[in-house]
Amino acid sequence: MKRLLTAVTLATMALGASAQNYPEKPITIVVPFAAGGPTDKVARDLAEAIRKPLGGQVIIENVAGAGGTLGHTKVAKAGADGYTLLLAHVAMATAPALYRKLQYDALNDFEYLGLVNEVPMTLIARPTMPAANYGELAKWLDANKGKINLANAGLGSASHLCGLLFQQSTKIDMTTVPYKGTGPAMTDLIGGQVDLMCDQTTNTTGQISGGKVKAYAVTTTKRLTGEAVKNLPTLNEVGLKGFNVTIWHGLYAPKNTPKPVLDKVNAALKTALKDAQFIKNQEALGADIVDDGRVNPAEHKKFVEAEIAKWGPVIKAAGQYAD
Length: 323
Fold this sequence. Notes:
By secondary structure, the protein is α/β, with parallel strands linked by helices. The chain has eleven helices and eleven strands.
């Protein structure tokens, strides 16, 4: 018994010393999507901003596939030492409903470290759409039931999720047209092959400013200030009460990562979110830095629990699942 207690004590002391000296080697942030996309950009900006307060090297590893779930699974099964982290977006909350067989539990296989940012979305249409404002668009939708095409960037994408909620909120079924990414979906929208799309400001503001698409509303509860979207109403104010969709990003570690390590990463995250260059980079993406209680682990997890509760019924009602 004495030997067992001694072994436990030595192990505890070693763990404490390791946590105290953290980081002693490079930290990897796993991005569950391909390089070059919005989430990858956020992760690379964050890696640079968080490197300074952590005092160590931070590298990015892209683990794309299966709507982000491959990257999530990799981190869930990684060593719980703080050297493998996950930068994930809203898929953390939607995958439990979208995928029948997940290799991880979104709420129980990760340590929550804090939210990073939120990206608003816009409801846009082909340039030849006859409606001049949302009121006219609502009438057009009602008059064209059964003939409306709604584009998205693929199952589980931001545009797919926003489109599902839009259909549910308007009580109008539309023909969902999935593409392999935002690029081809936007090309067909601009060309008039599809009618509508709901996508992130990171993907839409340039098209709106250039007059290549028509814009009707934003998906947040407050109006936006960006030049291209400042005159757009919110969907909430035009009658879709409670409509609120943003694409958010959060930072996670494997379950059972030592608390001293989690505390260090959370403190570094809070510092990074106040970094002038990081803020500038996020503003250029059309993203809002999170500056409320959700930068704390407990509030971050509570927020994701609420998002799971919101998206689960929407996805199940649509019956659009991935294997």
